[in-house]
Each structure stands twice: as structure tokens, then as C-alpha cells.
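Example record

The entry below shows one chain as it appears in the dataset: sequence first, then C-alpha cells.
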Amino acid sequence: MSAIQIPGLDIEERSPGSFRVRARVHPFFALTRTFDNELNALSWGCQQLERLHALHKKLSDEGRLPSTSLSRESAKALGLEALIEGEEVPSEAAAAKVRSAGDEIYTFDVLDSYMENEGKELSAGYFSRTRRLKQYFGDVAISGITTATIKTYIAARLSGELGHGRSKTASYASKNREYQRNRTRRSRGVPIVPTACPVDLPCSGSVRHELKLFRQALKAFAKRDDIRREQIGAYVSSHPLLCIELPSPGEPRKRRISDTELACILGKMACAKKRAAILLCIYTSLRRTEVISLRCEDIDWSGRTVLLRAPMEADPSRPGQMRKKRKTKTVERDVPLVPEALELLQTIAVASKGAIFDFKEASLTQAFGRAAEAAGVKNVRVHDARREALSWLHDVHGLTLEQLTLFSGHTEVKTLQKHYFQPSASKLAATIANKGVARRNIEH
């Protein structure tokens, strides 16, 4: 990072002898260019800042200054070609260069377009991945993203330069308490002093997810309409982003919560209803959202099952009507209740109808994380209860993989076996030993 600090101007040394300058004045999009000399980068950046400030004043005086951030497409639609004109001062070599279809496609436009359309039904994790991609690649043309730049990004991401993976030393892997404290400091404008963050888990899976998101966004951008598909479809299909080999997805998580760890965590949770929700996750293998969605009227006491309903959302094509939520893993089904789950529900589902739990899933996650930190239990998450539940149902109740799918809702046994089925070797050995003793007694 350059030592020169000018509001609205960032100069970053990307590699030896390569300086990327970024000039931005709200609400205009960023103007970006790369130079082989920091002085040239500074000179160009100052010129662009002066031009943007002048345009900002002119639009403000005329009452035409947009209140929201502009993209290149929206700037053209508003007749602000002056914002784009003069952005690049091409050299003779650049002028001689054959223009590519990717010269008119910019990273910010691709990612923003994807999140504004397909991203409406995606989880919050996709927005953080988009933000990370935009911070690194900047507002550059897609033609400037080559195999070399993607490999440089992957190497920087895996080395920890752009953020770390989850740490086994953290009491709660998903919500590190130091991260939360730093977020509060940022909101209050308090300076943050970076501290060493011991990381034991690689983030190759995160890099893979980010690049897959970038791929999906680029393909969706090219297919947005027939004209765009015809103009850039062939170019996008052969872009390095779609051809480069992605990092490995990493090994599936195998963490199981022991009885001792679970007892320590539950002992630190003050709310009895939240303790019951965690236990219900263990007894039923349901996800936290699914457990929170359970209702008293859906429990079949005689049949020893509970109806798990698929979440609904407003149907945009039919005003006033509802439809099944598209981006959900929940499958509507009857979930069997083991004796432990049935006994627990009898103590908490005392009403004839209505929701059993009166809090959100985020509140349960936060309570579980704080309890894990207080109990000193490392590298644990609420979702680990799903793995523990399915493995426990096999260890204690002897259920097969096919029978476990009635609890988990998986349509493919291999997904259940790969990510959640972690039977205890010691418990299996004890079961075999007990059967051997019984057989020997019969023989004698």
C-alpha cells in the first residue's frame, strides 16, 4: 500500500513495478487503472479526482446528483457519459491492442447485477463473498482478469494475506469473539490494532466458493438477455475464470460433540428453552432453523412423529399468494421422535397450538457460542449437533443409513454418509463385545 494518503484515492502496489490506482467520489463508481510507476499513478488519480469532484458539483448545483451509488450502466441511462469519458488515456501500445469483448464488462457490474437478481434468494454468506471479490479485483474490466491474476488471488487467499480460515483455538468457530469486538470498534470509529490470529484450518473451501460465485455471476451476466448472450456468450464461455482449476473443496468436517462437552455447554446456557432447543437438535438431527420452526399442533403424540413444514415466502408472480421458499434445504416430512425427544417435547410443548420456541435461530446460535466460550469448549458449532444426532441414532438406537434419512431428510445416502455419519468405533466395539459375551453364556 502506498504511503500517499489522499481522500478518495487509493494506490496499491500489486507486484514489483505495478501500481493500481483507484479514484472514487460518491455516488460515482470507481475509476481504476494500473501503472508501472507510482508517480504516474498518482498524477492520473489526481486528475480523475479533480474531474469527478467537478462533475459532482455540477450535478449537485443542477439538482441531478443521484442519491444511490451508480454503475456504468446506470450512469449511461442517466445520460452521464461525462463520467466515463476521459477515464482512460490510452498509450500508443494500448491503442494498437485489439479490443476484447471483455473490455466493456466490469467486475463491479457483474457481481452487483448477480446479487440484485439471483442474489435476492441467497444467504448472507454470498454477500460477504461478493464483497471480498470486489475488494480484491476492484472495478476492472473482465478482460484484465487473467489466469495469472486468478492464481495470484488464490495464492494470497490461501496464505492468509486476505483473511484467515476458521481456527480450532477459538471457543466458537463461526463467531469469533475478537471479530465481534473489532466490528463494534469499527462502528464506533475506534482504531483496531491487528493481533496474531493462530489458524489451524485452511480456507481452500472458502476460496473455492468465492470463485464459483464469480463464475455463476459472470455466466448469469452473459445470459441476462438475448442481445448480451449473442455479443459476449462465446467470450465468457472461454474466459479463464471458467476454465481455471479451482482449489480442492477440503475434507468434510468430522467434529462430534462429546457427552461431557455437551453437558458443559448446556450448563452455561441460562435459558431453559434454548437448552431444550439444542437437545432437540441432538435428538432429532434437525437443523437449528427447522427446530425453531416446530409448532405444537404439528406433534402427533400417538404416532410419535412431528410434521416439519417447508418454509414459505410471498409469490412475486401472484400477489397475496404464498409459495414454497426456493432456497431452502428443508424437506416437508414427518420426523420420527425417539423416546428422549418425545419426553423433552412433553415438557416444553404444553400449548395446544402455536410455536414451541419464541426466539430466532440467530439468538440460539449466539447463546450456544457464548456458552461454549464460557465452558472452554473449542471448535464447536450448532450445526455439529446434526452430525452428533445422526451418529448417535446409529450408535445408541442401531439405525441404518436408510433409516437415518427419515430423520435427516437427505434424498441421497452418500451426502449423509460423507458429511454427517461418524459412528463411534469404541461404542461399536463395546456392542460387539456384549454380543460375544451373551453368545458365550448361551454356549455354556
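Notes for this example: The longest strand covers residues 9-15. DSSP finds 20 helices and eight strands in the chain.
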